[in-house]
C-alpha cells in the first residue's frame, strides 16, 4: 500500500509546479508564495492533529527549536526562489535544476557530516548532474528563452532545499516529523509575509485575478496532499525506496508542462530527463 502513497506524493508534487505556474502569470511570485503558505500551514497542522502529536509541543528543547527555525527560514528561501524561477523560466528547465537539490544534499552530507558515498549513490549523482545540464541547454537556433535570471533563482532554490535537509540532520531531534513540519511552516509563513511587506507588494493583494487566486490556493492544497501521502508512505515503507519514487515527480511535471503550456523537450533534453530518472533510480540500490 505504501507504494501507492509514494506515487500519490510524486503526482501531487508534480502538479504543484503546474498549478503554481498558472497562478503567477500576473501575480507577484512572493505574494503567491505567501498566500499558498497559508494553505500549506492548514494542511501541516491537520497532519499534526491526525498524528496526535500536538501535545508534545512543550517537549521541544531549545536546540531543536533553533534548528527548526533555521530550517524554516531555509525552506522559505527555497520556496521564494523556486516560484520566482517558475515565473521567469520554463517549467521543464526550472524543475530539473530544483531537483538537483538531491545532488547538493549528498555533497553537503559528505563535506559537512562525513557521510560516505557508495558506488550506486555516486552513479546517481553523476546521472542527475549530467541530466540536469542537458535539460537546461538552450534549443538549437534559439538565442534566448524566457526572461533572464531564472537559473540563479532555481539554483538558490535547490541550495536552500539542500541546506534544509542538512539542518534537519544536524539538529532536529526528539520531535515528531509532522509537528516539526508544522513548526517550520509557521516560520515560512512569517518569512513569506515579511518579504511581501518589505517589498511593498501587499497593495497588490486586491488586484490578484480570481482565476490566479484559485490556482495559487490549489497549488497549496496539492503541496498539502503531497505531504500527507509522503509521510504516510514513510510510515509504511522504507525511506530508501519512498524518497526516490517521490523525486520522480519531475516526470509528472514535464508531462503536464507539455499538456498545459505546450513546452516541448528537445532530443537533448529527453536524454537529460532519462539520465535524471536513471540517476534517481540508482539511489534505490544504495
UniProtKB/TrEMBL annotation:
<feature type="domain" description="EamA">
    <location>
        <begin position="150"/>
        <end position="284"/>
    </location>
</feature>
<feature type="transmembrane region" description="Helical">
    <location>
        <begin position="239"/>
        <end position="261"/>
    </location>
</feature>
<feature type="domain" description="EamA">
    <location>
        <begin position="1"/>
        <end position="136"/>
    </location>
</feature>
<keyword id="KW-0812">Transmembrane</keyword>
<keyword id="KW-1133">Transmembrane helix</keyword>
<dbReference type="InterPro" id="IPR037185">
    <property type="entry name" value="EmrE-like"/>
</dbReference>
<feature type="transmembrane region" description="Helical">
    <location>
        <begin position="105"/>
        <end position="129"/>
    </location>
</feature>
<feature type="transmembrane region" description="Helical">
    <location>
        <begin position="182"/>
        <end position="200"/>
    </location>
</feature>
<feature type="transmembrane region" description="Helical">
    <location>
        <begin position="64"/>
        <end position="85"/>
    </location>
</feature>
<feature type="transmembrane region" description="Helical">
    <location>
        <begin position="150"/>
        <end position="170"/>
    </location>
</feature>
<dbReference type="InterPro" id="IPR000620">
    <property type="entry name" value="EamA_dom"/>
</dbReference>
<protein>
    <submittedName>
        <fullName>EamA family transporter</fullName>
    </submittedName>
</protein>
<dbReference type="Pfam" id="PF00892">
    <property type="entry name" value="EamA"/>
</dbReference>
<feature type="transmembrane region" description="Helical">
    <location>
        <begin position="268"/>
        <end position="285"/>
    </location>
</feature>
<keyword id="KW-0472">Membrane</keyword>
<feature type="transmembrane region" description="Helical">
    <location>
        <begin position="30"/>
        <end position="52"/>
    </location>
</feature>
<feature type="transmembrane region" description="Helical">
    <location>
        <begin position="212"/>
        <end position="233"/>
    </location>
</feature>
<comment type="similarity">
    <text>Belongs to the EamA transporter family.</text>
</comment>
